[in-house]
């Protein structure tokens, strides 16, 4: 009996260590200690969304090459019933951010997002990619035109390319939220709010009024909503 108890404790320690390592490496973990016995995957998107180039070692990043395989694994795991996405991001690589957003939007399981702190730039499509979205009262969302680093050739083709990228972002936002395409574009190209720059910052309830986010709320609200979506999904099977 003693050996069995020791083996059980050892297995529990191994599972806990793996979960801690998963959080440390990928900002992800599984929530499965709830009363309803639902298995929910937690994905945190924080710092800057890293694309094909590595950010400096002291930068807080979300690596899309880590997130995409995890999302594919989730879709293939019949035991996972829902996804909760926590966001506090300054934006980052457009292609990487859209890739993650498209992946989340295509999941067959119920999904809910919660904006904590901020979800700026490419973080906006990420925030609206879920079935339902929340933002805390002090959370911010920033919509602005595409910005590129380095030397930019001032040719008509370059500006057409910028427009194409911005159209991809605006179309995704429109398709996955209640905001109209033209209104999202007006917010993106707003000249009145940010000094020497274009764009709009929305705080909490403002993001809901504009139709970007579904509701103001916190972690309790987000989990309650996700549980209800899972219940509805169970009932439909």
Write the layout of secondary structure elements.
Elements: H1 2-26, E1 28-31, E2 40-50, E3 61-63, H2 64-76, E4 82-92, H3 94-105, E5 111-119, H4 123-128, E6 132-135, E7 140-143, H5 156-175, H6 181-188, E8 200-203, H7 205-209, E9 215-216, H8 219-236
Parallel strand pairs: 2-3, 2-4, 4-5, 5-6, 6-9
Antiparallel strand pairs: 1-2, 7-8
Summary tags:
globular; seven-stranded mixed β-sheet; alpha/beta; 8 helices; 237 residues; two-stranded antiparallel ribbon
Q: What structural category do the secondary elements indicate?
A: alpha/beta
Helix content: 40-55%
Radius of gyration: 20 Å
Count of helix runs: 8
From N to C, what is the helix and strand string? HEEEHEHEHEEHHEHEH
What amount of the residues lies in strands? 15-25%
Mean pLDDT: 82
N- to C-terminal distance: 42 Å
Query: What are the segments in which pLDDT stays under 50 over at least 5 consecutive residues?
Result: 19-24
How many distinct beta strands?
9
């Amino acid at each position: 009996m003693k050996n069995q108890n020791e083996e059980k404790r050892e297995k529990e320690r191994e599972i806990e260590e793996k979960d801690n390592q998963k959080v440390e490496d990928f900002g992800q973990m599984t929530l499965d200690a709830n009363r309803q016995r639902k298995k929910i995957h937690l994905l945190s998107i924080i710092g800057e969304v890293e694309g094909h180039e590595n950010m400096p070692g002291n930068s807080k990043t979300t690596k899309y090459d880590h997130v995409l395989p995890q999302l594919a694994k989730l879709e293939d795991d019949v035991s996972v019933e829902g996804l909760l996405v926590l966001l506090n991001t300054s934006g980052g690589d457009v292609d990487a951010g859209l890739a993650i957003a498209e992946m989340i939007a295509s999941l067959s399981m119920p999904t809910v997002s919660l904006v904590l702190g901020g979800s700026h730039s490419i973080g906006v499509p990420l925030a609206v990619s879920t079935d339902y979205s929340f933002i805390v009262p002090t959370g911010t969302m920033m919509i602005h035109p595409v910005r590129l680093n380095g030397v930019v050739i001032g040719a008509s083709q370059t500006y057409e390319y910028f427009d194409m990228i911005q159209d991809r972002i605006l179309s995704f936002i429109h398709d996955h939220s209640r905001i109209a395409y033209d209104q999202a574009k007006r917010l993106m190209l707003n000249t009145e709010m940010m000094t020497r720059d274009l764009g709009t910052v929305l705080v909490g309830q403002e993001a809901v009024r504009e139709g970007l986010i579904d509701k103001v709320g916190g972690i309790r609200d987000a989990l309650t909503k996700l549980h209800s979506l899972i219940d509805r999904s169970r009932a439909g099977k």
